[in-house]
Design brief:
The chain is of the alpha+beta class and 231 residues long. The chain is 36% helix and 31% strand. Strands 3-4-2-5 form a four-stranded antiparallel beta sheet. Strands 1-7-6 form a three-stranded antiparallel beta sheet. The longest helix has 26 residues.
Length: 231
């Protein structure tokens, strides 16, 4: 019984403290503003999918031959194969495998990482020379994305403070310390390329040298609600 009384007393005191804190917050003069910030970042991580398929060559070249040709082409484009290229999928078409082995076709997918659009252009050109055109852009990202996320948060808070100061000055008052900060939204996931980009050989027939490619920047957005005491 005594323990129950102590627990009830603790709950009552906790509720009273919360109510008093809320009352003190509401009773004082304050200004509440929404700080917004945006930041656009040029991606330095561009992920590609390269699809090799024996069927594309009408079974004239094996997947092993296509792979070796691709390795040579990528090296010419300045790619470090060990660090930037990995196998993402390997499959065989086993239809009629038990009846006619010649019908077995293989396909292989690679994920390639490039760091700038100039290198990407070189990759497209070199692969196009060996008739590899089934290339898709998977996604883009930045190696220091966390640093930029932190910066856009700071910018949002600064923007909120500047807005509060301007509004307070309009009524002849000054902004004091922040008494409440709340994150409203932080939609800054990786920038995804929703439309798959296919590179056809005719794209380079009239191009001179390496094509000038550009990417949509990664857009980071952040908003925060801030309340400042008025003096």
């Amino acid at each position: 019984m005594k323990r129950n009384v102590i627990l009830l007393l603790a709950v009552f005191l906790s509720w009273s403290a919360m109510a008093q804190a809320q009352k003190n917050f509401i009773d004082q003069n304050y200004i509440e503003v929404k700080g917004l910030a945006e930041l656009e970042v040029v991606p330095d991580e561009i992920y590609l999918n390269i699809h090799l398929d024996e069927e594309d060559t009408k079974n004239k070249e094996s997947i092993e031959v296509l792979e070796k040709q691709m390795f040579v082409a990528l090296k010419k484009a300045g790619i470090n194969l060990e660090e930037q290229l990995s196998v993402s999928d390997f499959a065989s078409n086993l239809q009629n495998h038990f009846f006619q082995r010649a019908d077995m076709k293989k396909s292989k997918d690679f994920e390639l990482l490039v760091h700038d659009s100039k290198t990407l252009g070189k990759v497209f050109v070199e692969l196009d020379k060996i008739k590899i055109s089934n290339i898709s852009i998977l996604r883009v990202d930045h190696s220091e994305i966390e640093k930029y996320r932190k910066q856009v948060k700071i910018n949002a808070v600064i923007a909120g403070k500047e807005k509060a100061v301007a509004l307070a000055e309009a009524i002849g008052q000054k902004v004091g310390k922040a008494i409440y900060i709340n994150e409203v939204s932080s939609p800054y996931g990786r920038q995804m390329v929703n439309t798959m980009m296919r590179v056809k050989s005719e794209n380079f027939e009239s191009a001179k040298g390496v094509p000038d490619l550009d990417f949509q920047k990664i857009k980071l957005e952040y908003s925060v609600m801030i309340s400042f005491a008025l003096e």
